[in-house]
Every structure is written in structure tokens, then in C-alpha cells.
Amino acid sequence: MALIGGVILVRLLGLLQNLEWAALDYGLKLRLPEPVDERIVIVGINEGDIQALQSYPISDRDLADLLEQLQAYRPQVIGVDIFRDLPVEPGHTELSKVFKNNSNIIAIERILPGRSGFTVSAPPNLPDEQVGFVDAVLDADGFLRRSLLGASNLQGKFRFSFTMRIAETYLQDQGIFLTNGILDPEAMRFRAKELHRFQPHTGGYIRADAAGNQILLNFRSGPRPFRQVSLRDIQTRSVNPEWLRDRIVLIGVTALSQKDLINTAAISGMTPGLVYGVEVQAHAISQIISTVLDNRPLLTTWPDVWEYIWIILWGSVGLVLGRLSPSPTKHFSVIIILGIALIGFSYGCLLLGLWIPLVPALIAFGLNSIALYAFHLYDQGLKARIQDRQMVIEKTFDALHNGPLQTLSALLRQTQDQDGSMLQLNQNLQTLNQELRVVYEDVRQELQDQDRQFTLGRDLRLDLKSPLHEILYEVYAYTVQRNFPCFQTLKVKVVTFEPLDSRRLNFENKRDLCRFLEETLCNVGKHAEGVTRLTIVCGQSKNLNFIRVEDNGISHSTIPSDPNSTHQKGRGTQQALTLAQHLQGSFQRYSSAANGTICEIIWPIQKPWFWQR
Fold it and tell me: What is the domain range of residue 66?
């Protein structure tokens, strides 16, 4: 949860703004192309037009002639995205007359001081209904993502934008009028379509400037969203009249040399990252009229509380995933799949006009799922190292128990036997001396080879990658050759080592089975007095693996009726019970029909269903 809180804090500090803006831009840019908006036509004054006129800026006379030629096509509204606060002779009188006689022409002004500190007035003597400002609000990275619909000028008078003036004029002619919002009285509304006002914390924005009346700009997708013609096309009457009749015609400069450009990464174009100012106006106008007439979605966002719930939700998914901790391959596969799902869902919402927080949710999910999993792996490694140390202790004691301690036990019994041979006693003491010296070397070598080998005595190294029944046979062959007194009376050995299913056994399980067989045979060799017959069977039966050792000797140790009881439970019995538990099987030690002893361990070939993970 600390990581989730950290992501939320970083977002509240505004450090994720640029990433969220970039994600929004990229998502908008990836959308499939939309049809050309036939209601808007751009008359672009390009480099060829400037060369033909041999002057720039375009004179008032040339502009007046262009407007009169366009009026002949009977467009519904004409927007002039060219400043005309001062006369550009010749032709100022003619241009003023054209503006005065045509109420469907909208001119521009600038009401907010930019970097230069100056504003730009509208053409003189034009009524307010024919003037709109073209001020733009850029984000901190210099890119445009918002459309300013209305704002107060330096004199405190509320003014409408060029975008809103043209959209309002076009929709008024269709009987749709601009009113105040219902959900938000300060918002603008056409019929039931309320233009959601931008707020300081809208979407990925943190403490943004929300002055005036702004909305998020939902650019129209596609390489050519609007039809464009040149000034020369109009002058030479090379355009289809139907392209202009009852349309919105925007006049602007589309020459790179004049640098009327806006930075945006949300749309593709001839100049990546740059869009002509008149094209931006077309996008903003198209957004409004398409929303009102075509139900094209505006860009909206969730309330702040739902955005942070969304981030916490995905961070929690990462927490859960990190705690499940399957194999690394599966873990990272799930991370990739869920990450793609999050990105896909966010993109789908954007197609519907909903901008949801992708970047912070993705970061919260990724950090929790990866960092927590890394911590879990570290914890597992630490536990494994502790377990390895414990194994060293267990292996050392096993080596002592199965060798020197067994010899010492026989010596103790021999000293109590009045008929004991001193020669035999000397031999046993020599054996004890040998076994004690071998313990260190056995444990050291086994730790070095613990990944794949098992060491028995001084000279037997078993490869745990070999078939299990072959390994067990080597353990049997080595152990029965040891100089134990009861082995001297053996006359019959019945030995069967059939292949065992060891697919689910690891190397440690195989070592433990080898120790079990060694311990059982050592007990026969040291305690089964008068033994003449030894039967060893390793095999499979009814989806079970088993190892059974049976002798007909007389043991002086008491055999408990229940090996799982704690009464008289020796070290060997404890080892066998622990091994059976690890294998989800069972261990039994009981008297045979021939008054001997049977030791048997059985385990399933596959884990029970409730052990599956």
C-alpha cells in the first residue's frame, strides 16, 4: 500500500502530468481515421499563393476580393483567421465595406497579452457578434490540448472565442441556440449538449489554469479531416460550388514560412507535431457542431475520487498478483497480459470520449506486482538459506547416527556381553574411528554436490539424476557389505528393484529415500540377531511407489504398534515419518510373520488433488 500511496502523492505533486498528457496524445493519434467533415472547408493561403501575389501579408483589396468571391458560393458562415486591426493598403475601404455588408463574416482579435505583452484588436466598426478571439491556452510542455470558448478581456468584458462565434452562427441558422448549462450553470449548452467545463484537476491535470470557459479538445482523427483549397483555386474558380454552399469556410495562412503553427501531438499531419492555426480552429469548431448534430463524444473525465479509486484498484491487483507468486515465467506473463488489458481498456474508453488515468494506474500496478514479487523471491531465498543450514545440521547428525553412533551402540552391547571377543571389540573400535573421520568428509562433499549427488561413505558417489531404482540398488549393495555383525548370519537375500515413478521427486526427496534405505539396512545389520533372510522390494502398485525391507531376525528394540505415536520413537523412525509426510505418503514399522521386522514407506505417484497448486 505504501507504493500505491507514493504513486498518488507523486501524481498530486504534478510529476506525472507530462506522461499522462503524452498518453492522451498518443491514444488520440492512434484512433482510426474519421470521415472528412464536409461542413468545414479551409481556404489556405499557401506558399504558392504568396508567390503569385508577390506580397505578404495579403492586402485588404485581395482579401476583400476573396470574400466577395466566396459569398457568391453562398456559404453559411465565413471565418477570417487573419488579423486586420490595421489597414493593409491598398483596399482598406473595400474590405471595411465587405465586413459591414455581410453579417456572416467573423473576424478575429486577441484579448490576452501573450509573450509580447500586447493584445490585437478586431477590424474597426465590427459588431461584437462578428468578432471572436483566437487566444489559445498551451500546457506546460507547449502543446495544445484545450479549447478556450470564452474569457474576459483586460477591461473585464466577457468575450466569445472565434471557435464559439462560428459554431454559434452555424447552429443558429439551424434553429439551435446557445444557452447556459443545466448541470453547470457557467457552462455553455446547445440543446441537451452541455460543453463540460475544464477544471484545475481535470483528468491528468494538476492545479492547471482553468480561467475562462475551457473544454478539452477532441481533435478529429485522420490525415485530412477537412477539405482544403487554395486562394488560387478560388480565384480561378477551380472548386466545386457544392463544397462551399451552406458550409463553414475558414480563411487562414497555411504557409510554413509565416509560422502560424500550433504544437500538438494528438493528430498526424504533413508537419509532425505542428498544425496550422486555421486547422486548429477547424478542429475546435468541428468538435462542437459534431457533438450537437452527430452525437460525437466530447472528451470527459471521471470525478477525482473515482480516478484515485481506479489507481488504488490497479495497485491492489498488483499486490494480489505479487503475493500469489507463481513461477517467474507465469508471473511476468500475467503482468504483461493485465498491463495490455489496462492499456486496451483505457484506449477503448478514449474512443468513447472518456479519459481515464492510465499512467498512474499502470505504474501502481507494475510497481506492486514486480516489487512485491521481487521481495517475495528474496524472502524465499532467505528461507532457503536458513533451510540449507538446517539441512547441514540434519545431515551431520544423520551421518553420525547411521554410522558411528550405531557402531557405538553395538560396542556398548558387546561390553555388556561376558562372552564378547576382544578381537571383535578391537575391530569395532577401529570401525568407529574410521566412521568418525569420514563424517566431516561426507558432509563436506555432500554439500558441494547437493544439487545432484548423494555421498555414501568415503568412496560411493551417487548421481541423483540416474533412475531412482538404480540409485537405491547401489545404496543396498554398499550397505550390506558393511562389517555389521548381523549381516554375518545372512544366508538368503531376496532383492527386487523395479523402476519407480520419480517425476515429482526433487533431489532432496531422493536423498532422503536413500537415507531411509541405508538406515533400515543398518538397523538389520546391527540389531536383527540371528537373521538368515533379508527381503528388499522396491516397486509400484496401484499408483503407489513403495520400498519394503523385511528380515526374520530377532530385534531387542521394542517395535511400537503405531509408528506415528511418540512412544519410543527413535531417530530413524522420526526421519522416516518426516520423509513420508513430505511425500504425502505413509511409513510403517511392524513385526513380520517370521518374528522379524518389516519397514515400509509408501507414497503416491501424483500429489493428491488438495496438494495441487
Answer: 31-296
For residue 3, the surrounding DSSP H or E stretch is helix 2-12
| Residues 187 and 283 grouped into a single domain | yes
Q: In whole angstroms, how far apart are CA 204 and each of 1, 162, 345, 552?
A: 22, 27, 17, 83
- 250 and 328, same structural domain? no
Mean pLDDT of the chain: 86
Decide: 162 and 79 in contact? Cβ < 8 Å.
yes
Q: What pLDDT is recorded for position 613?
A: 40
* 146-152/213-216 β-pairing: antiparallel
Contact 251, 235 (CB under 8 A): no
- 274 pLDDT band, cuts 50/70/90, is confident
Helices 571-582 and 507-527, axial angle in degrees (round to 10): 150
Residue labelled with grid coordinates 502560424: 260
Reading phi first (left if > 0) and then psi (alpha if -120 to 50, else beta), residue 529 is in beta
Count of H-run helices and E-run strands, the chain = 17, 25
- Which of the four pLDDT bands, split at 50, 70 and 90, describes residue 567? very low
pLDDT confidence of 609, banded at 50, 70, 90?
A: very low
What is the rounded distance in angstroms from the CA atom of residue 220 to the CA atom of residue 24?
Answer: 14
The whole-angstrom distance between residue 363's C-alpha and the CA centroid of its chain comes to 8
Residue 371, all three cell numbers: 516489487
Say yes or no: 24 and 128 in one domain.
no
For the chain, the C-alpha Rg in angstroms (whole number) is: 45
What pTM was estimated for this model as a whole? 0.67
Question: Under a CB-based contact definition with an 8 Å cutoff, are residues 452 and 506 in contact?
Answer: no
**Which residue did the predictor score with more confidence, 556 or 274?**
274
CATH number at residue 576: 3.30.565.10
Q: Which of 354, 345, 220 has the alpha carbon at shortest distance from 300? A: 354
Which is nearest to 526 in space by CA: 488, 572, 500? Answer: 488
Smallest CA-to-CA distance from 151 within 93, 209, 232 is with 209
d(CA 75, CA 228): 15
Instruction: Please give the Cα distance from 116 to 120 (Å, whole number).
Output: 11
pLDDT in tens, 48-92: 999 998 888 999 999 999 999 999 999 999 999 999 999 999 999
The whole-number pLDDT of residue 334 equals 86
Q: Which of 147, 146, 49, 126 lies closest to 83 in space, CA to CA?
A: 126
Q: Which of 379, 402, 421 is the last residue of a domain?
A: 379
Q: Could you give phi then psi for residue 187, rounded to 5 degrees?
A: -80, 170
User: Dihedral sign, CA of 269, 271, 273, 277?
Assistant: negative
The answer to whether 478 and 460 are in contact (CB under 8 A) is yes
Selection from 567, 455, 586 nearest residue 518 by Cα: 455
The predicted model gives 306-315 an average pLDDT of 94
% pLDDT > 90, the chain: 61
Q: Is the pLDDT of residue 612 over 50?
A: no
Domain end: 379, 412, 438, which one? 379
